[in-house]
Structures are given as C-alpha cells and as structure tokens.
C-alpha cells in the first residue's frame, strides 16, 4: 500500500479537558507494509496512530501536541518534518512496545520545529513497557525539554526503555546531564536503525527504493 501527496487532517478542537471528542487521530495505520510519500498529518493530541505493521514515511509532515506519533508499528521516518504546536507540555512519541514484541520508531534525517518558545517538548514517553525510539541525523529546534524522554509515570520501565540519539544537530540536540533516559548511540548501535532493512524494505518497497535497502540511508 502506498500513498502520495495526501493531507490527512482532523478538525477536532484542541483538547482542553472539557470538550469531549477533542482527542482524535488524523490517521490510524494498522495495515502491514504501508508507505507514505510527501503526506501531511495534522492534528493535536494523537495525530498519527502508527498502530502496528511495517511502515515507511518519507518527506512527510506531522503536526501535533501530545503523543502525536504513537503506537507499536515498526516504522522508519525519513526526511520528515515534525512540528510541535504550543502547549505547556508536549510529547512527540508514545511508543507502545512490550518486551516480547518486534517494533519501534526510527527517525532519520528529520527536522523538529515548534511554535513554542518554552523548552517543554519531550521526544517520547513510555506508553509500552519497553519502547524503542531512535532519532538520528535530526535537526532539533530549541523546543526539546532538557530531560528529553519521560517514563510516563512508570519508573519501573526505566531499565527497559531504549531511547537512542545519534549525530543530531540544532539547538535542541544538546544532551544535558538532566537527560536520564537518553542512550547516545555508537556507530555500531545506530547502524540497524539507519537502513531500509530496519523495516525489511527489500521485501516490499518499490524497486527504485530497494537498491539501497541493505545499506545506510544517511
């Protein structure tokens, strides 16, 4: 399944804790082997429900506030812009992997921007017991919270969270002493997340993308 140049927007109002139905997705993708090219996903909380399956997002735009890329898909986001709307606390990802599962989110050559001037954006929080999220070669604006990652109120998950960062840039890429859960990846540790092979791309992506499937896409 492939989608090109589509805008998926949920017109529900921004959640305020009062109005019902405001927390709503722009897209839930649960099909396996799905690819999106130059698509836009626009919403507030829970914009993109990357529920399950192998997925590829390239040259896309994703906008939201809290947990706006969430689920247990095994997905590669390449050259995608992630835009955070202003709120007191914002969270990019809520990855739901449990220990026995094979899934995770890899963001490569992406860009994180935001309308907020306050460094209140977490890169992710642990919706599942053993989440995997990696940001590599990503340009991060100065919106990233100094702690960077959050245990979702479950401190018992802290030893099972794999939150990796590799060769990121921008004002928000500085890993301070407050970043308790960040794993600064070595070349060897990052390698598997930087390839189309992360999502078994050689088996299902179109031939013009398969030529580099066993190699780095950096």
From TrEMBL:
Q: What class of enzyme is it?
A: hydrolase
Instruction: Identify this protein by name.
Output: Pectinesterase
Asked if the record carries the keyword Iron, the reply is: no
* Gene that produces this protein: LOC103342442
Protein origin, superkingdom: Eukaryota
Q: What is its EC number?
A: 3.1.1.11
Family statement: Belongs to the pectinesterase family.
* Catalytic reaction list: [(1->4)-alpha-D-galacturonosyl methyl ester](n) + n H2O = [(1->4)-alpha-D-galacturonosyl](n) + n methanol + n H(+)
Q: Which Pfam families match?
A: Pectinesterase
Pathway it acts in? Glycan metabolism; pectin degradation; 2-dehydro-3-deoxy-D-gluconate from pectin: step 1/5
The Pectinesterase catalytic domain covers 20-201
| Keywords associated with the record | Aspartyl esterase, Cell wall, Hydrolase, Secreted
Record localization: Secreted, Cell wall
Primary residence: secreted
């Amino acid at each position: 399944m492939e989608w090109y140049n589509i805008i998926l927007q949920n017109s529900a109002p921004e959640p305020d804790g009062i109005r019902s139905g405001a927390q709503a997705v722009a897209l839930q993708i649960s099909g396996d082997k799905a690819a999106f090219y130059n698509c836009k996903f626009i919403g507030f909380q829970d914009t993109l429900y990357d529920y399950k399956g192998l997925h590829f997002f390239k040259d896309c735009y994703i906008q939201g506030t809290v947990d706006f890329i969430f689920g247990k898909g095994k997905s590669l986001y390449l050259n995608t812009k992630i835009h955070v709307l202003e709120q007191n606390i914002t969270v990019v990802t809520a990855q739901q992997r449990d220990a026995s599962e094979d899934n995770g989110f890899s963001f490569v050559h992406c860009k994180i921007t935001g309308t907020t001037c306050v460094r209140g954006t977490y890169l992710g929080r642990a919706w599942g017991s053993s989440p995997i999220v990696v940001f590599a070669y990503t340009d991060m604006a100065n919106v990233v919270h100094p702690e960077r990652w959050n245990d979702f109120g479950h401190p018992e998950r802290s030893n099972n969270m794999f939150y990796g960062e590799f060769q990121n840039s921008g004002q928000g890429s500085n890993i301070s002493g407050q970043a308790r859960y960040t794993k600064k990846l070595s070349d060897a540790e990052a390698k598997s997340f930087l390839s189309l092979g992360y999502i078994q791309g050689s088996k299902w992506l179109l031939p013009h993308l398969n030529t580099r499937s066993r190699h780095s896409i950096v």
